[in-house]
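Dear Dr. H.,

I hope your travels went smoothly. While you were away I took the liberty of generating a structure for the chain from your last submission, since the lab meeting agenda had it listed for discussion. I wanted you to have the full record in hand beforehand rather than looking at slides cold. The sequence, exactly as received, is reproduced here:
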Amino acid sequence: MNLNQLTVPSRNLPAAVAFYQRLGLRLIVDALPRDARFECPEGDATFSLHQVEELPRGNGIWVYFECPNLDERVQQLQAAGLTFEELPTDQPWLWREARLKDPDGNQLMLYHAGENRKNPPWRVEGIINENP
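The corresponding predicted structure, in token form, is as follows:
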């Protein structure tokens, strides 16, 4: 199994599409006013937006985008006018993260984790895949 795409809600799809294009995602499906789909500049994952009347309540959605050159990328995005809630910071879970929100308030983390992305020192070992 592989993750293909993640879809997040938006109340203002045109504003959200413009935001994610500024973030660096490539628009590959323009089905406004209902949907939009992007591909990430690296890897094979896609990211979608879906028009909604009301946003989810509570802590909302958190989306992580991996950036190998995190500090440089954050500087580029700031120069392009994006505002970050937290600049790149080393976290206790061994990831370096910067945080910002999209126009709908969805929490975005740009991060770099290197080997710790999937193999932190506390990784659970001995998991056997019974369905190869």
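Two observations you may find useful: The longest strand covers residues 5-10. Residues 23 and 34 are 21 Å apart (CA to CA).

With kind regards,
E. W.
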